[in-house]
Amino acid sequence: MSAIQSNVSEPISEELALVRAAKRGDDTAFEELVKRYDRNVFRIAQHITQNREDAEDVVQEAFLKAYGNLAQFQEQSKFYTWLVRIAVNEALMKLRRRRPERMVSLDEEVKTEDDSLPREVADWSPNPEQMYNQAELRDILTRTIQGLPAGFRTVFVLRDVEGLSTEETADALDLSIPAVKSRLLRARLQLRERLSRFFQKRGSGDGNK
Amino acid sequence: MKCTEFLQELTNYLDGALDERTKSELEDHLAWCHNCYVVCDTTKKTIEIYRDSELYELPDDLRGRLRSAIMSKCSQHKKSSPGSA
Which domain holds residue A68? Predict the structure, then answer.
């Protein structure tokens, strides 16, 4: 068997089997896809819109759009990546509607090269998440990530929280791979810098060992 | 390797996407540059904390409601445009 044909003979994934069944009109199969990805879509939507009601709407609209356009899904990417792409667009539309005064775009570029360069390099406590109770920690993490520009936040959430690959993230956001990498680096560094305020070792800032 | 060069490669390093040579240059730098070591280590922790944070989990009751709403809208869609889904 030649290498070129090897993709064709691979067994189709469970996801693709569900997609094909749904395309043939099997709503139970589509419901399985909803069950499989609703949590992820909700999380992504809430990270982008920063609003629970908007996130609920995005979940519904994204799945409904996917359902209505299933025939157009070409099966060249994963269904999940395609779904994320729809969800991100819906979420950005919500965000723009809510904040018309601010341009919200995934293309918003960074003004300077130095905006993410570390200024604060104090080391963190060995178990930073144990310095706060669960509610405090949640609050710190939420407020910190909300402070990032939408374009950075979205890349960070898809790559580091949802675990999409760089290629899948680029595909879902219609960005180039270098653009994804550059945003991811800046997002990670900015989050790190902001979290340092909360997580640095206590009592070691005055030079006393 | 300078600190700025190190930073440029930090994401690739954390993602395990570097060739052996660049990786070993980076690790040489980390061995003597304490600031970069701290930045690297705390960036890694930043990612882990967010990954494990379970922010915005979808509660079961809301999840059930959303799913029923989605499926009932899908079935309306099918009735209004038969053969399209």
Answer: 13-98
Per-residue pLDDT reduced to its tens digit, B19-48: 999 999 999 999 999 999 999 999 999 999
Write the DSSP assignment of B7-68 as a string of letters.
HHHHHHHHTT-S-HHHHHHHHHHHHH-HHHHHHHHHHHHHHHHHHTS-TT---HHHHHHHHH
Strands (E) in chain A, as ranges, are: none
**CATH number reported for the structural domain that contains residue A157 in this entry:** 1.10.10.10
- Answer whether A39 sits within 8 Å of B8, measured CB to CB: no
* pTM reported for the whole predicted model: 0.86
A23 and A79 fall within a common domain: yes
- Which chain A residues contact residue B63 at CB under 8 A? 38-39, 42
Judged by CB atoms closer than 8 Å, whether chains meet at A117 and B7 is answered as: yes
CB contact under 8 A, B57 and A43: yes
* Cβ atoms of residues A140 and A130 within 8 Å: no
Q: pLDDT of A20-69, one tens digit each?
A: 999 999 999 999 999 999 999 999 999 999 999 999 999 999 999 999 99
